[in-house]
Write a structure and sequence with these properties.
The chain has 359 residues and is an alpha+beta fold. The protein is built from 16 helices and ten strands. The model has no long low-confidence stretch (mean pLDDT 92). Its EC number is 1.17.99.6.
Length: 359
C-alpha cells in the first residue's frame, strides 16, 4: 500500500465515489470499523428469540470476538468500511394492485429480477481492483449480505441513511428500495457524517404489517415476518399466520409500501433488476403448475431459487388457500394433493379445507 498523507485520503475517497458511480452504485459512504450501540441491540434481539430458526445469526455472536459486531475480528487489520448502495425498485406491475388481486402472486420487488448477490459482488470486486491499481495492495474483503455484517448500522454510520422503524435503512431522497454492500479495508479513510432520524412520530410501517411482526419501533420479531416465513423458515408455516400471508409467496414489502419516504423512491437504473418471466403479474395457479425442472430453469440466477422447489410450492399452496374459491384454484390444489413432499401435502390439505368450508 502506498504511503499517503492524512489530508490526501479525502481525495482518495472522492475517487472511490467516482469509480463506484461508474460501476453502477447509486451512493457510497465511509465509516470507521466499529458498530457502536448496535452490538448490545443485537444481543438483546437474539436473547428475545426474535431470530427464529436463523441460528447462523447467533452462532457468530457466540464465537470469540463476536464477529458480527466487531469488524476487526471478522477481517483483521480493518480500519475503515466502504458501504455502497444500489437502488432496485423495478418498473413493474403496481405492487398494491397485485396485492389486491388475490389470484395473482406477490413477490417482493427486490426478487423479481436477477439475484442481487450476482450483480453486486463482481462490481464490488471491480471497485477494489480500481482501488488496488491506484493505492497498491491492501487488506480487504467484500460483502453482499454474505457474512456476519451489520450492514444497516454500518450504512447508518457512513451517512447513507438512518434506521427506520421497520429496521431497514431509509434515505429522504430514495426511500428504502435499495441493496447494500460493503468493503472492509485497511485503508484509513476518514468517516462520513451520519444523518439524523426522520421517522418522527410516524408509525405507518408498524401499522401496515399483516402479521404484526413489528412489535415496537425498530423491533422486528422475525418469527412473524412474512419474509422470514416464506424464505428463511424451512418447515411448516404456523397455521395462525397463514391467512395473513394473503397472496405473498416470496417476501413482503408492506412496511416499505406504507412508508411515506418511499413516495420519492426512484426506479432502478440496473437492467438486471427488471422482472423476469412476468413474475410481477403471474397468477398463483400458473406458478403452482411449474414442474421442478421448470422452476430450476426459470429461477436460474434468481434469489428465489435458493428456497428450493418444495418451499416454493408450500408458499403458493398457502396463497391458494387464501384465494377466492373457484374451480381453477381447487383443481390446482387437488393436482398436488398427493405430492411427494409431506410439507407440500400438509399445506395443500390446509388450503383445500378452507375452500371446502367456504362452499
Amino acid at each position: 500500500m502506498m504511503r499517503i498523507m492524512h489530508d490526501q485520503w479525502h481525495t482518495v475517497k472522492e475517487n472511490i465515489r467516482r469509480w463506484g458511480r461508474e460501476l453502477g452504485f447509486d451512493a457510497i459512504g465511509f465509516s470507521r470499523a466499529e458498530t457502536g450501540e448496535a452490538a448490545a441491540q443485537l444481543a438483546a434481539w437474539l436473547a428475545a428469540g426474535f431470530h427464529g430458526e436463523m441460528d447462523y445469526m447467533a452462532a457468530h455472536v457466540s464465537e470469540v470476538g463476536a464477529k458480527r459486531a466487531l469488524p476487526t475480528e471478522l477481517v483483521p487489520g480493518t480500519q475503515s468500511i466502504i458501504t455502497v448502495r444500489m437502488n432496485y425498485r423495478p418498473a413493474s406491475a403496481d405492487a398494491e394492485e397485485v396485492l389486491a388481486d388475490t389470484q395473482r402472486a406477490y413477490i417482493s420487488r427486490y426478487a423479481l429480477g436477477r439475484d442481487y448477490h450476482k450483480v453486486m459482488r463482481p462490481r464490488l470486486q471491480a471497485l477494489v481492483d480500481r482501488m488496488t491499481e491506484a493505492q497498491g495492495e491492501f487488506v480487504h474483503r467484500v460483502f453482499t449480505d454474505s457474512a456476519p455484517v451489520m450492514e444497516v448500522q454500518l450504512a447508518k454510520q457512513s451517512g447513507l441513511g438512518w434506521r427506520g422503524k421497520h429496521t431497514l435503512l431509509l434515505d429522504r431522497a430514495v426511500g428504502s428500495y435499495f441493496f447494500l454492500g460493503e468493503i472492509y479495508s485497511e485503508l484509513p479513510l476518514p468517516p462520513d457524517t451520519p444523518v439524523t432520524d426522520h421517522c418522527g412520530s410516524c408509525t405507518a410501517c408498524i401499522d401496515s404489517c399483516p402479521t404484526e411482526a413489528l412489535v415496537a419501533p425498530y423491533q422486528l420479531d422475525a418469527r412473524r415476518c412474512i419474509s422470514y416465513l416464506t424464505i428463511e423458515l424451512k418447515n411448516s408455516i404456523p397455521e395462525p399466520l397463514r391467512e395473513s400471508l394473503g397472496n405473498r409467496i416470496y417476501g413482503c414489502d408492506d412496511c416499505q409500501l406504507a412508508c411515506p419516504w418511499n413516495r420519492f423512491s426512484p426506479l432502478t437504473r440496473e437492467a438486471d433488476f427488471a422482472p423476469r418471466h412476468a413474475l410481477d403479474e403471474a397468477t398463483l395457479v400458473e406458478l403452482f403448475a411449474w414442474t421442478e425442472d421448470e422452476f430450476a430453469e426459470r429461477m436460474a440466477g434468481s434469489a428465489i431459487r435458493r428456497i428450493g422447489y418444495v418451499r416454493w410450492l408450500r408458499n403458493i399452496a398457502v396463497a391458494l388457500g387464501n384465494a377466492p374459491t373457484c374451480d381453477d384454484v381447487v383443481r390446482a390444489l387437488r393436482a398436488r394433493e398427493n405430492d411427494s413432499s409431506a410439507l407440500v401435502r400438509e399445506h395443500v390439505a390446509w388450503a383445500l379445507a378452507r375452500h371446502q368450508s367456504s362452499r
